[in-house]
Amino acid sequence: MAAWAGFTLPSAFALIMFGYGISTLHSAVAHAGWFHGLKVVAVAVVALAIRGMARSLTPDRPRGTIAILAAMLVLVWPSAWAQILAILAGGLFGLLFLRTDTVSSHSALHIPIARATAVSCICLFVVLLLGLPILSGFVHSHTIALIDSFYRTGSLVFGGGHVVLPLLQTAVVSPGWVSKDLFLAGYGTAQAVPGPLFTFSGYLGSVMQPAPSGWIGGTICLLSIYVPSFLLLMGILPFWEVLRKKGAIRCVLMGVNAAVVGLLLAAFYNPVWTSGILSANDFILGLLAFGLLSLWKTPPWVVVTIMVLGGAFVSIL
């Protein structure tokens, strides 16, 4: 808990404060060039994430095919159910058709967590995952719906933090809780602050249109998206030495990770590309940002600053 607080709270605090500012000024800056520059940053960041994840998670034709089919499914049927189906289908394909090498020797980890505690955490994880949608259906409360959406998002993220983008986009943009412009501007800004990308959820909670919003909404979203990780970590670690030796489990995860590359690929087209690249000038800025990040290894906060200034300059021209 202490490690999580130290790693997460600085970024979450900064993004929630940015959410307060952008909510107040959104009507005045919605068409400002610097604001659009933040969306261009998102294009470059997601493109870079797709390249990196594709190299490690889809290095062969079977897994590349899983990613392409997953992207096609989500683009044709843009819903949370399509994303869940893509992940499940990827895991099933991995179980049936993928093969993995034998686990290399290693030193066993000492995990000071009782198995009874671990089983309780897994049971609580499943109860919340299945029970929150039912509770949300019976109790018409936006707070419950918010907890349900962000808990489910945190439960489905595999393969890297950027996979949270398509899941959160479906969770908050599709129902109209957060506008597409605010979503992408916050995602671009999240690249300029230290800490994990999951803290983007704090920003989304702070700019949410239905109450709760502000710091209360940000706190609810931040905790809801992280609770599944805590429960799964506590639940799986005591059994990890046994699980990691089972080839079937590794094959399933290989298929799942390939599918989430497809989810990110679909999100790259919509909403990232369709909202960020509206002209040749935007494309030039996007290429510049991608080159700075990938070739010159420029710190992300520097790239965000350059894109904000570049967006403002292009709008003046």
How would you sum up the major sheet?
none
Measure the end-to-end span. Answer: 49 Å
| Number of H- or I-type helical stretches | 14
Tell me the Rg in angstroms. Answer: 20 Å
Give the helices and strands as they follow along the chain: HHHHHHHHHHHHHH
Count of extended strands: 0
Count of distinct structural domains: 1
What structural class do you assign from the helix and strand content?
A: mainly alpha
Mean pLDDT: 93
- Low-confidence spans: none
Helix content: over 70%
Global outline: globular
Beta content comes to under 5%
Summarize this structure briefly.
This protein has 317 residues and is mainly alpha-helical.
Explained architecture:
With about 325 residues, the protein is mainly alpha-helical. It has one domain. The protein is built from 14 helices and no strands. It starts with a helix and ends with a helix.
Observed structural traits:
mainly alpha
Can you lay out the helices and strands and say which pair or pack?
Elements: H1 2-29, H2 33-57, H3 61-76, H4 80-97, H5 115-138, H6 142-156, H7 164-173, H8 180-190, H9 200-207, H10 214-236, H11 240-243, H12 247-276, H13 280-294, H14 300-316
Helix pairs in contact: 1-8, 1-9, 1-10, 2-8, 2-12, 2-13, 2-14, 3-4, 3-12, 4-12, 5-6, 5-10, 6-7, 6-10, 7-12, 8-9, 9-10, 13-14
